[in-house]
Design goal:
Distance between the termini: 56 Å
Helix content: under 10%
Strand content: 35-45%
Shape: elongated
Length: 1426
């Protein structure tokens, strides 16, 4: 079984090689027939529990790292553990195997070196690369590449092991590859990553999975092996402190043919034409500036009427007459959304963002400011809305739309002059090209493209070609894209072929050639080059050639090929500012452009050596981050072991969020920042005030979830994040995830729209202002749909390091860390159990969680025993004999001290049907709070239909509730508590229907001097209706002396003693006798005559007490075996403080247990029905077992909270744990059916059932003939009884004599003397003799246990006489207008107002009904119902 320990131990580690089915108890565990008991709840002091399984012989050692499986329902199953001191840090799934890595030397007893595979099919672990193989140091990250079936491994190691010296030299460190197909290791194509403290913390694919992004603490170097031009840029572009080298390298979009309208424009000459500010020909002034009417908001609308791509806007203020624009916003056309802008504040030099009321400097030393979009936008126009101004009116001197870098169109006329350019981009045609019109991606827009048609077989040198010469403003790293028009719009798909695109980067760099297929249905943008571009002087142009591929694809149509040409686009990723050098004495890289902490590896690139100087030709769009990060950190980065990039989150093309541990003072960002458009920029402010350990991106790349050791923003302006935060890319803003956790988050994953968090924390918080939180330990899940923490599922106690999703479409997840304890199911003090499909017990999640008690005045004790049922009573009152003339003097012994039951603990439960909603409501009592109602404590109502938990209305319980009982719509609450406004302590009544506390007569229970009242049991007996029996620790009720037990007569509203009474304390009460006329109590007791009687029996008929022999000790729980006074079980502790379980056979007590230790506390004993029988013995019948609950320690079976006993053998059933990992306890099982059958039913053969059914059917035919005669005779006599008035006839017997000899009555009489099939019989005439919902005792079973039909409705179903619509509205709910005692055979007693279900209403005088609460059936007068 599962041992739960809270500190390292030398006991054997967890050795598991099989996964466990997440919801099933083991087949060896006896199966309780939970369905016969109705809805079954389990209550106690626990945060999680397991259905016992002998194969889970698990010992958790917190000094090792345990791997667990978390199923889709949240249940947890341990898989295996590492050696002591081991740690699992990374995992990923590939081709049916889970790969785990970290720092460990074995897993599940298999020798490995820091990495292993787990075969989820074979359920076994293996080393990678051979026996006891792996890598030589810690692994921090894994990436499973499904496309190449390769595992990438990153960490702080040098190479795989074992290897010889020559093989080790092939590895540069920190990165290695593993190929599962041949179980072999290989170095990465770039050899490795180096540095004085080299470590790879993160391996992440880019958004298109075409390259891998490595983050960590290592060095890279580009540059010095090729002669490069130095920082070529157009000197005509004016410099401004409101711009960056990146933004000034972006070529403005030519807008010469665009429609530009400013409204309202000034009427002053030279300032009314907004077109003048697109590319002003002179200085700020008339003819070169524009301004609006005085005192007016204004809008400038620019419509290009064509397809354009832009990445920002440039605005320059006017200063004439002190006027100028102060604040503005940009709206995209045709999307009509306000664009978020990023810009450099010219006064501080730091990056900032804005969307509405963006500021524009009014300083003549700042000629313009550049505002960049979050990503490149496809537009047909834009609007500038000016909302604030300087002086009398707003105005502008410069308005330019910035491209994403550079561009050229295949249509020469579209290549207009760009501002500051020495000339327009050019295009040269070779061969015959014609202009055709094509639709664009923007609805309703078209554009011209070129098409060349030529014979199939034409040599590439003789085929048409096109050469672009785009104007490039400055040298930089660019991604070059070729736009390919879709063939469907041009209706030439069959004629398309492939083309060769050659890019000339300049500066003696070799040409880059790419083959592109033009056989595409829709418009496509194809990447043809990524790397540095150096424009030639003085024209500042580059060269790209489009020609027929050397081996063209396709067969053409009609012997002809088509080539199409649209545009070429250069997307700037970072500017090139020239090479730098760096030298140190530590053997680190020297010369060229140095980078730190980041490296991008395109998966299709040729091999290079990243431990040396990398060629500039290998620079990618994102590699600029490394040099920018290095520069921002300073030269100490080469030896700094603290600064690192630990997580990378790509969210758009060549744009990423990176995070870890760093401070970039020049950027103004700490621990998290973004790299976009060639620059490191702040995200959502100044970053976070603690280390970031993990990030995960949503599937739509719009949201990034971040975990780490932070509490708010780095600048202190935002708080309440507590280790968790989300970043919204569109708004560039942070927001809390719930209220975070109270510790460090080490890992996060996203699966099934739930965020799974692993770390070192003990509480989760619902919102940033929640300072109480809910106890968890090391792992939690946050549901993103409901924005709330998930309360169902398993529970872990420990410090967790890993949370990853499973493979492919699997909904499973894997968790790892230092586990103190683990429970398959998480539950805060209570749960519902029911039968599964195969009869096994399963858990029905509630979806709610109870909370802790914040008040220091509330007690927290564990409940010993409670009869927490929903017995209902009605009818005349009865007395309990003469009042005692003796006063209680107290007992010399007492019950054991109450054990601790820290909140949330549920100590009692009951059920109630809400008549207004017809929903079943679970009533919980104990020591807890209700999270949805922070002031609600001690009692909660759970609506099973709506799955809502709420507290009682009005004043709340102050103290601990130990017992609850529902009678009708009244809830009786017992314990050690008070309720403001309710007199006395320990007992209170609540009206469930009207939701208010009931006034209680001024006769409260009293305790001995210096003591307190504790009510442990509230019960009723069928033999004394209208009375409550209250037992526990008290001395009197009002002025009436009735120590430990007293009866409340609801008719007289008075307390009554039970005979001569008892002395001491009572822990438990149960009943015996056919009508519950004998009451059995257990505790620390003496009778009135001084006889010791820790188990005593009281006759409710003759008001006398007697001791049941000499019990072995003080009793904490007692139960009667199916009302049999000669079969009673009691549990408690002997005078030597030894726990015991004893059985009373009518004459003597016999001890049943022998292996329980002194720590055992039994809180409840309960007989339960079984699905299968066990061997008969003298203690228990074969169809039932004793369910023993509490906190049990066995020398042979370990720790458990519930165990089953068949009279000979104990079977552990439940194991629970508390929120701190220590063992929990079960206080009670409570069920909705007040009575149920234990009889294990047997079934007749199908053939016999058919013969019996035929015989019954034949008899019924004759009965029908007789009924026709009797019906005529009885109709007139019965007519007068159709609508009787009970108040006019005090003798119910006269009414009963008129019950008709109906078909229903004859079937009822026949079935009481005829054997028919039992439950589940197959074939004609089969009938369910005992259905779910029928909890009545089986009083009609033969001694040989062949089942009889219990009700006429069973027989009607068996014989096929209940046809469709007959009787009408079967199972129709109704209510009783009057009370009906129902003493005759077949009659059902009901109380006025009680809800019942009509089963047969064909007789106009008597209807056949069922009590839905107890499951009993019978007839009642039809006129009594409404």
């Amino acid at each position: 079984m599962k041992q739960l320990i809270s500190k390292p131990s030398s006991v054997p580690l967890l050795l598991l090689t099989v996964l466990l089915s997440p919801y099933h108890a083991n087949a060896a565990t006896p199966k309780i027939d939970l369905a016969r008991m109705g809805t079954v709840g389990v209550a106690g002091t626990f945060a999680g529990f397991d259905l016992f399984d002998p194969s889970k012989n698990i010992t958790f050692d917190p000094s090792s790292s345990t791997l667990l499986l978390r199923a889709s329902d949240g249940s947890l199953s341990p898989i295996a553990a590492t050696n002591q001191g081991g740690s699992i840090q990374a995992a990923c799934s590939l081709d049916g195997k889970l790969y785990i890595a970290g720092l460990f030397s074995n897993i599940a007893g298999v020798p490995v070196q820091n990495i292993a595979s787990y075969d989820t099919g074979a359920r076994s672990f293996s080393a990678l690369g051979g026996q006891n193989a792996g890598v030589d140091a810690a692994v921090s990250s894994l990436y499973c590449d499904a496309s190449s079936h390769t595992l990438w491994v990153g960490g702080k190691f040098r190479s795989p092991v074992p290897l010889d010296a020559s093989a080790v030299r092939l590895y540069g460190g920190a990165v290695a590859r593993y190929t599962p197909a041949n179980n072999s290791w290989s170095p990465p194509p770039f050899v490795g990553l180096t540095g004085s403290s080299s470590q790879v913390w993160s391996i992440t694919p880019n958004t298109e999975s075409t390259s891998l992004l490595f983050g960590g603490s290592f060095l890279t170097q580009f540059g010095s092996n090729i002669s490069l031009a130095q920082n070529i840029s157009n000197p005509n572009v004016p410099q401004s402190s409101g711009a960056t080298p990146f933004s000034t390298s972006l070529v403005p979009v030519p807008l010469g043919g665009a429609e530009v309208v400013g409204s309202p424009s000034s009427q002053t000459s030279g300032f009314s034409n907004a077109s003048n500010i697109l590319c002003p020909a002179g200085a700020d002034g008339p003819g070169n500036s524009w301004r609006t009417l005085d005192g007016s908001r204004s809008v400038i609308t620019v419509r290009a009427f064509r397809f354009i791509t832009a990445s920002g806007i440039r605005l320059g203020n006017t200063f004439v007459d002190g006027r100028g624009a102060k604040t503005f916003s940009i709206t995209a056309i045709p999307d009509n959304d306000v664009i978020t802008l990023t810009y450099v504040d010219p006064t501080t030099g730091k990056n900032a963002t804005c969307s509405d009321a963006c500021p524009l400097a009014h300083d003549s030393s700042v000629p313009y400011q550049d505002y960049l979009f979050p990503t490149s936008r496809t537009l047909t126009g834009f609007q500038v809305t000016i909302s604030g101004w300087y002086g009398a009116s707003a105005g502008l001197h410069i308005l330019q739309l910035l491209s994403s870098g550079a561009f050229a169109s295949a249509i020469g006329s579209d290549n207009g002059d760009s501002c500051y350019a020495p000339g327009a981009s050019q295009v040269q045609q070779a061969g015959t090209w014609q202009t055709v019109n094509a639709y664009t991606d923007i609805a309703g827009t078209t554009q011209n493209v070129l098409m060349a048609t030529f014979p199939v077989g034409t040599a590439p040198a003789n085929a048409p070609s096109l050469t672009y010469h785009p104007y490039v403003s400055a040298s930089g790293n660019y991604n070059v894209y070729l736009s390919v028009p879709g063939c469907q719009n041009l209706q030439d798909c069959s004629k398309r072929t492939s083309v060769k695109v050659t890019v000339m980067p300049g500066a003696n760099l070799p040409a880059a050639t790419t083959t592109v297929s033009q056989q595409v249905d829709d418009d496509t943008r194809q990447l043809v080059y990524s790397g540095p571009i150096y424009p030639s002087t003085p024209s500042y142009t580059s060269t790209v050639t489009l020609s027929l591929a050397d081996n063209p694809t396709g067969s053409g149509s009609g012997g002809q090929f088509d080539m199409v040409a649209d545009g070429i686009q250069f997307l700037l990723t970072s500017p090139i500012n020239g090479n730098s050098t760096f030298t140190n004495g530590n053997g680190t890289l020297a010369g060229g452009a140095l980078g730190f902490g980041f490296y991008e590896w395109p998966l299709t690139s040729a091999a290079v050596n990243a431990t040396g100087v990398l060629p500039n030709t290998t620079i990618t769009a994102l590699d600029g981050l490394a040099s920018a990060f290095y520069s921002a950190l300073g030269t100490s980065a080469s030896t700094d072991s603290t600064s690192s990039i630990r997580a990378i989150a790509p969210y758009a093309d060549n744009q990423i969020i990176f995070a870890g541990q760093f401070t970039l003072s020049t950027v103004g960002a700490s621990n998290v920042a973004a790299y976009a458009n060639g620059n490191i920029v702040k995200v959502g402010g100044s970053g976070l005030n603690g280390v970031v350990n993990a990030m995960v991106v949503s599937s739509d790349h719009k949201t990034i979830y971040v975990g780490g050791a932070f509490t708010g923003s780095a600048d202190g302006t935002q708080t309440g994040y507590r280790g968790l935060v989300r970043y919204d890319v569109a708004s560039s803003s942070w927001s809390a995830i719930g209220g975070g956790v109270d510790g460090v988050v080490w890992d996060i994953s996203l699966a099934n729209n739930q965020l799974n968090i692993a770390g070192n924390f003990s509480h989760i918080f619902s919102n940033p202002s929640d300072n109480t939180g809910t106890s968890v330990a090391g792992f939690a899940s946050f549901d993103l749909s409901s924005s709330s923490w998930v309360v169902d599922g398993g529970v872990l106690i420990g410090s967790m390091t890993l949370a990853v999703a499973g493979d492919g479409n699997s909904t499973a997840q894997y968790i790892a860390g230092n586990v103190v304890s683990s429970s398959q199911y998480g539950a805060s003090g209570w749960a519902i159990l029911e039968n599964g499909d195969a009869g096994q017990a399963i858990v029905q999640p509630s979806g709610v969680k109870l909370g802790a008690i914040t008040s220091s005045t509330t007690a927290a004790r564990v409940k010993r025993h409670s009869i927490g049922s929903n017995l209902q009573y009605s009818g005349p009152s009865s007395h309990f004999g003469p009042r005692s003339k003796r006063q209680a003097t107290g007992s010399s012994v007492s019950l054991p001290a109450d054990a601790s039951s820290p909140a949330p603990a549920v100590l009692a439960g009951a059920y109630w049907t809400n008549s207004s909603t017809s929903n079943q409501v679970v009533i919980l009592g104990g020591n807890f709070s209700v999270p949805s109602s922070p002031t609600g404590t001690g009692v909660a109502l759970y609506d099973a239909g709506s799955k809502q938990l709420k507290s009682l209305k009005g004043n709340q319980v102050s103290g601990v509730v130990r017992s609850v009982l529902v009678t009708g719509n009244t809830l009786v609450v017992g314990g050690d508590f008070t309720v403001p406004g309710v007199s006395g302590q320990g007992l209170a009544l609540y009206d469930l229907q009207h939701e208010q506390w009931l006034s209680y007569p001024n006769q409260p229970l009293q305790a001995a001097s210096g003591g307190s009242v504790t009510v442990r049991s509230i019960s009723t007996s069928a033999s004394v209706p209208n009375s409550l029996i209250v037992a526990g620790t008290f001395t009197s009720a009002g002025s009436l002396s009735c120590e430990a037990i007293c009866s409340w007569d609801d008719s007289s509203k008075q307390w009554q003693p039970l005979g001569d009474g008892v002395h001491g304390q009572i822990a438990s009460v149960d009943y015996a006798g056919s009508n519950q006329e004998l009451m059995v109590v257990g505790g620390a007791l003496t009778l009135a005559d001084g006889t010791s009687a820790n188990v005593a029996m009281y006759s409710l008929k003759n008001s006398t007490w007697k001791a049941l022999g000499t019990a072995p000790g003080i009793v904490t729980a007692v139960t009667v075996n199916n009302l049999n006074e000669s079969s009673i079980f009691a549990a408690g502790r002997t005078s030597e403080n030894v726990p015991f379980l004893a059985h009373w056979d009518g004459n003597t007590w016999s001890i049943q247990n022998s292996a329980w230790t002194g720590n055992t506390v039994i809180q409840q004993l309960k007989l339960v029905p079984l699905q299968d029988t066990h061997s008969s013995n003298s203690v228990l019948e074969s169809d039932r077992m004793l369910l023993i609950s509490g906190a049990i320690t066995s020398n042979t079976q370990g720790l458990m909270s519930s165990t089953l006993y068949d009279g000979q053998t104990f079977y552990p059933y439940l194991v629970t744990s508390s929120a701190d990992g220590s063992p929990g306890s079960v206080s009670s099982f409570f069920n909705s059916y007040s009575t149920f059958s234990f009889n294990h039913r047997k079934f007749l053969a199908t053939g016999i059932v058919i013969l019996v059914s035929i015989a019954i059917a034949t008899g019924i035919v004759f009965l029908l003939l007789l009924l026709g005669i009797l019906w005529t005779i009885c109709t007139r006599r019965e007519a007068g009884l159709a609508h009787p008035n009970p108040e006019d006839d005090d003798d119910e017997s006269s009414f009963r004599h008129h019950r008709p000899s109906s078909l229903l009555e004859h079937i009822n009489a026949a079935t009481r003397t005829t054997i028919i099939g039992g439950a589940g019989l197959a074939g004609a005439g089969a009938v369910a003799a005992h259905r779910k919902g029928d909890a009545s005792e089986d009083t009609h079973a033969d001694p040989d246990m062949w089942a009889r039909a219990d009700t006429p409705s069973d027989v009607m179903g068996a014989t096929g006489m209940m046809g469709e619509g007959e009787p009408g509205d079967v199972n129709r709910p109704t209510h009783a207008r009057y009370s009906f005692a129902g003493g005759a055979e077949g009659e059902l007693p009901v109380a006025a107002g009680q809800e019942i279900v009509v089963l047969d209403d064909r007789d106009e005088s008597w209807w056949y009904v069922r009590d839905p609460t107890s499951g009993r059936e019978g007839v009642v007068p039809a006129s009594y119902l409404y």
